[in-house]
User: Fold this.
Amino acid sequence: MSSRDQVPYTVFMARWEPNAAERLANAALDLFAERGYENTTVIDIAQRAGLGKSTFFRHFQDKREVLFGRGTMNGLLAEAIAAAPSTAAPLEAVAHALDAAGREVFTSARREFTARRQAVIAANPELQEREALKNLSLIASMTDALRQRGVPDLTARVAAELGALASTIAYERWSQTTAGDDFSEIARQALNDVRASTASC
Amino acid sequence: MSSRDQVPYTVFMARWEPNAAERLANAALDLFAERGYENTTVIDIAQRAGLGKSTFFRHFQDKREVLFGRGTMNGLLAEAIAAAPSTAAPLEAVAHALDAAGREVFTSARREFTARRQAVIAANPELQEREALKNLSLIASMTDALRQRGVPDLTARVAAELGALASTIAYERWSQTTAGDDFSEIARQALNDVRASTASC
DNA sequence: AGAAGTGATGGGACTTGGTGCCATCACCGT
DNA sequence: ACGGTGATGGCACCAAGTCCCATCACTTCT
Assistant:
């Protein structure tokens, strides 16, 4: 308290700096990577971000959600599917969606960040549950978007499911490549591989 | 304490009656159906089963797990896939697995119970997360079982995923039928429908 | 029969996730 | 200078989950 008065205000005033949610997310990822998810308290996260416990829960529904940020993916994929040419087959529309994901989310700039995040998730069942649910939500969004294109119900579900599988496989390959390969290309290839595999079932 | 001595022993001695886990699971399903998952305390469940909180957590890892019992499904599906004739294509082996599930798990005797359980899950996101994770685990088991039959990696994943989708769809149809339809038949039909849909993608 | 052992249970203390409420603070417009 | 607004902090509180130890019913050995 007394030492605080001797130094420039901004050094200590994390309280009113902007981007509280982003600071919290970064602090969380750092701590999870350092000591693990279970050995990190919400209070720990808030403190590292220069905030309080209350503020954490004002920005995130729960402790897990801090790793899954603003779920902008659903809308992104749905819009990309809707924007696909009306002549495109279901899986081609899904390919458009994966392309959009590569352009907007899985950019080469965020590759390292995404990898760290994924490592944390892989190390904790609680986080895997949340991720599984988010994935279900993505599939539901894609299914809806396909239905609105006039795709029959069952076909829409199958296409969305195959798209999600291709996305998962693409992500695995993308995070293993050392070079700065483009996610969109990898995803397109993965989707073709998946489509080919459906034939040999 | 004093009143306990005045009445027959067995009336109050839930403590040493057998099947503690089963009693807990039944009590939990009842209470969840009555007041909802969130309005039910672990202590409530334990009390209705005539047990204590400690005992609950000795039988189940957490509050959610009480609805997902002994995960015997993984082994069942894996064994059924392994037992399928070596000439069977991947999806045919998966069909064998769904058949086994219909014979051992989704029996007409358990239809009502399964329906109540599913209604409770559908009403709560926390439980949906757990179910999503269990489903991932099932898919992983089936994928492994297929790989051990010599099925290539990607094909195994696709087949397992399509099988899981067929299973979900079959379950939806099965729980909607008023008659005592056989799950195995419905599942076989659902798998055929899914396979047909993959063609029109 | 009595003693010792075994396994399931009960219960309380404790940590943590999560909610609710209210006072406080910085900033903005009047 | 004044009041309004929105973000924050802190506290009290409940429930989930962990730990530890005493207790109890039942078994086995002496």
